[in-house]
Specification:
Elements lengths: L2 E5 L12 H14 L3 E4 L11 H14 L4 E5 L5 H13 L4 E4 L9 H14 L4 E5 L9 H10 L3 E6 L4 H12 L6 E4 L5 H7 L3 E3 L7 H12 L3 H14 L2 H4 L3 H11 L17 H15 L1
Parallel strand pairs: 1-2, 1-8, 2-3, 3-4, 4-5, 5-6, 6-7, 7-8
Main location: cytoplasm
GO cellular component, one term: cytoplasm
Protein name: Dihydrodipicolinate synthase family protein
């Protein structure tokens, strides 16, 4: 698995129920444009606002619909036993990968995090992508990632949603350097190109929900060594990533951008998240017009 992976939004109706038809439409669109992977129950998908039953339902429905891309399911929780349950479910329905962010709320040291991931790796067979997102959960250090990668063959890679080129560099050199098949993805649109330059494998980036053509064009140009063109697309992504600075949350930023670009997904977030108002929507409109025309 390499390339452009989309951390999918979860579409909701006005009563906060899951909008299944919008989900189906969006998955069809993303596969038609040629993204390399679909990641359901992601941070962008508001997984912390979903019940266990809803997360399983989305994972199952996504598995039925995704046939042209790699299929990844988020199985994070603050409970190790719940992570095992969700990861086994992802394995049983035929997902290609499980993505697991560290436990949140409770601060844990590297030994506790190693025990957490070890338990999941030993109780399941599905390939696991670690998810380093220190703004929301316990951070994964480079030594910890390396220890897990070298100890467990089914720990297959890491998504790095961290604003540190040096950290990503060290993961690529120190972990991928010793285990060539270990995949390293950025979770930040603005770091897509430099992650590829350093030797990473792609990106799992939320703006690809509404502008996957930019991410795919950058990937293609880089693979074909048309670097000046890749630079141009990277500059677009750098500007697009400012959508996160305008909005109050990832979910609000992406769903407002999607509504402005004509997607049928409603600008509805589940509480406790709240949608930003018209002033923020107008700022996002100006940003999108300036970058995408």
């Amino acid at each position: 698995m390499r390339g452009v992976i989309v951390p999918l939004v979860t579409p909701f109706n006005g009563d906060y129920s899951i909008d299944v038809s919008a989900l189906e439409e969006h998955l069809e669109f993303l596969q038609k444009v040629g993204v390399h992977g679909i990641f359901i129950n992601a941070t962008t998908g508001e997984f912390t606002s979903l019940s266990i039953e809803e997360r399983k339902f989305l994972a199952e429905r996504g598995r039925e619909l995704v046939n042209a891309s790699f299929y990844l399911v988020g199985t994070a929780s603050s409970s190790t036993s719940e992570v095992v349950e969700l990861t086994r479910h992802a394995q049983d329905i035929g997902a290609d990968y499980a993505i697991i962010a560290p436990p949140y709320y409770c601060p844990l040291n590297d030994d506790a995090l190693f025990a957490h991931y070890s338990t999941v790796a030993e109780k399941t067979d599905i390939p696991i992508i670690l998810y380093n997102i220190p703004s929301c959960a316990n951070p994964l250090s480079v030594p910890l990632i390396k220890r897990l990668a070298l100890e467990y063959s089914n720990i297959a890679g890491v998504k790095e949603t961290i604003d540190s080129v040096n950290h990503v560099r060290d993961v690529i050199l120190d972990v991928k350097g010793e285990r060539e098949d270990f995949r390293v993805f950025t979770g930040l649109d603005q770091h897509f190109l430099n992650t590829l330059v350093l030797g990473g494998d792609g990106g799992i980036m939320a703006c690809a929900n509404f502008a996957p053509e930019v991410h795919l064009a950058l990937w293609k140009a880089f693979q074909e060594k048309r670097f000046e063109e890749a630079f141009q697309h990277a500059r677009k992504l750098a500007r697009l990533s400012r959508v996160y600075d305008i909005a109050s949350s990832f979910g609000s930023a992406i769903k407002l951008a999607m509504s402005l670009r004509g997607f049928s997904i409603k600008p509805v977030l589940r509480p406790p998240y709240v949608m930003d108002g018209e002033d923020v929507k107008e700022e996002i409109r100006k940003l999108l017009t300036g970058v995408l025309g």
